[in-house]
Design goal:
six-stranded antiparallel sheet; two-stranded antiparallel ribbon; 0% helix; 59% strand; globular
């Protein structure tokens, strides 16, 4: 089993100050089909920070990717089905080191839309 350290454990690597404007790119499709989780479900997140990352003098350069390998469950709830939560196993890569972790995602609608991602325990290989 490989060990991977995440900065401050609940903060994305590279977040160093309030108001930082680095953006994350993500996409997912999670659904049930005929009473079972759809085999075509997917999730991917890519987050990168820093400037001059491909130069000899990089500043605060970090990269996080999360790619789902399998899905365990999906729950849709709250008013107007405004919240969903799903649990999966994913490959998590931080600054080039990859491990397999359990993770949960909670997309929530209105007012505004936000995404809460939790990465937890390492899955034995």
């Amino acid at each position: 089993m490989q060990s991977l350290s995440l900065t401050a454990s609940d903060v994305l690597a590279g977040l160093t100050q309030q108001g930082q404007t680095d953006s994350a790119d993500y996409g997912f499709t999670v659904d049930y089909r005929n009473g079972a989780l759809d085999c075509r479900n997917d999730f991917h997140l890519n987050y990168a920070t820093g400037v001059r990352c491909s130069t000899p003098n990089p500043v605060n350069c970090h990269r996080l990717t999360v790619t789902a390998n399998s899905f365990d469950w999906l729950v849709i709830d709250q008013d107007n089905d405004s919240r969903a939560t799903f649990k999966s196993v994913a490959s998590v890569t931080v600054d080039g080191s990859t491990i397999t972790n359990v993770f949960t995602v909670e997309p929530v609608r209105g007012p505004g839309v936000y995404l809460v991602i939790g990465v937890s325990g390492v899955v034995d290989q």
